[in-house]
Amino acid sequence: MFEVMYDYLIVGAGIYGSVFAYEAAKRGKTCLVIDKRNHIGGNMYTERVHGINVHKYGPHIFHTNDEKIWNYINKFTSFNQFVYNPVANYEDRLYNLPFNMHTFYQLWGIKDPNLVLDKINEQKGNAEVISNLEEQAISMVGSDIYEVLIKGYTEKQWGKKCNELPKSIIKRLPVRLTFNNNYFNDKFQGMPANGYTDIFINLLKGIEVRLATDYFGNRDYFNSLARKIVYTGPIDKFFDYKYGQLEYRSLEFETNVLNMNNYQGIYVMNYTSSKIPYTRVIEHKHFDNNGDEGITIVTKEHPKTGTINTEPYYPVNDEKNNKIFLQYRKESEMLHNVIMGGRLGEYKYYDMHQVIASALNMVSKELL
Ligand code: FAD
Predict the structure, then answer these.
(1) Catalytic residue numbers?
(2) What is the rounded distance in angstroms from the CA atom of residue 315 to the CA atom of residue 323?
(3) 87 - beta bridge partners?
């Protein structure tokens, strides 16, 4: 038998695990944080290369309407003022996102918001029964926007044809009849001035962290070290897939260092045509204007089907998977020494602010 040495073993040094560890340590609890990767930060991790903060697991933009969460995250790093205005590239023509008057002018040359509305209404059709994503999207924004800006991108992202995807994936497709390229409607938005990793260095200060350490590499040993486990990995793996495998979408990142100052003039360009295999090209230096002279770093993001051997990035919250998940959740709720949290533990398509809220909510129940 091993000696119980910690109050909490925290599996995963992502934002859920790190917020929980910080709050527990603040209340005098002892924690051991382990992560199978060789760095802290989970998917928010940024690595400084040639002075550029490289978003290693895809572009991350912090945004929230919740002032409490905004003030909380600002305790751990300083944020630059940042407004996310990505651009879409369809067959070498550029369009502003989200769909707004700039986009409509680029698509149709129309300047009058009322004529834009007429154009969209003309194309919406009047299907009485909507049975898939394609019909849902056309009924919301019409066929031109669907063909140019939605179809190819969505099919690459999900690895399925839009007319085979459930309509529930698209609940809202906001159409803005103003010249406003701000992607998010939230009150607070920002980019950490020194990259996201800074947040984790500050959250985990004074807490024991072991990297390149897989919980499943020696599960019994790790279980024996602590009174309770906070697990932020895939919930289906925790239960050895006994109710079946949950579906995830995965990604492959193709990154190149280029000897030039500026490759595409913007942090994110979405490629919306199905002829291009990747969905986005990220030029990291434009997030915070850092970096050495004469160098830029560019990443192409390729969506992939998730398998047992790929990194699970996006939960696929359709009916079938949610049903499987509920079985796992029910079982986890019966384990009084285990807390499941985060995007993979809760199998939810959470953004960063939602994961922080979920961790703080758990802290308020668990640590009073
Ligand atoms: P994670 O960050 O996944 O952390 C879990 C950690 O657990 C990982 O480090 C993993 O290595 C570790 N782990 C798993 N299994 C084990 C094991 N067996 N042993 C040890 N360690 C283990 N959110 C936004 O708000 N804005 C955005 O713009 C945005 N963009 C995104 C873009 C992409 C491409 C992706 C994938 C996500 C994006 N998100 C964004 C979501 C955001 O990344 C997540 O909400 C957040 O990082 C999830 O935190 P987490 O702690 O739940 O999980």
Answers:
(1) 172, 176, 249, 280, 301, 349, 351
(2) 13
(3) 96, 269
Predicted confidence (pLDDT) at residue 2 exceeds the cutoff of 70: no
Question: Average per-residue pLDDT in the chain?
Answer: 96
Is the CB–ligand 1 distance for residue 44 below 6 Å?
yes
Distance, in Å, from the CA atom of 353 to the CA atom of 73, rounded to the nearest integer, reads 9
> How close is the Cα of 107 to the center of ligand 1, in Å?
36
Residue 55 belongs to domain spanning:
6-78+193-243+315-366
Same domain, 71 and 91: no
Of 169, 185, 215, the one marking the end of a domain is: 169
User: Residue with the nearest Cα to atom 34 of ligand 1?
Assistant: 58
What's the pLDDT score for residue 318?
85
CA 33 to chain centroid: 22
> pTM for the full model?
0.96
Q: Strand 280-283 vs strand 268-271: parallel, antiparallel, or unpaired? A: antiparallel
Length of the chain: 368
Query: What pLDDT score was predicted for residue 62?
Result: 98
CA distance 116 to 25: 55
In this prediction, residue 1 has a pLDDT band, given cuts at 50, 70 and 90, of: low
The structural domain count of the chain equals 2
Report how far residue 340's alpha carbon sits from residue 204's, in angstroms, rounded to the nearest whole number.
Answer: 20
| pLDDT digit string, tens, across residues 20-66 | 999 999 999 999 999 999 999 999 999 999 999 999 999 999 999 99
Asked if residue 161 belongs to a domain, the reply is yes
Has residue 341 been placed in a domain?
A: yes
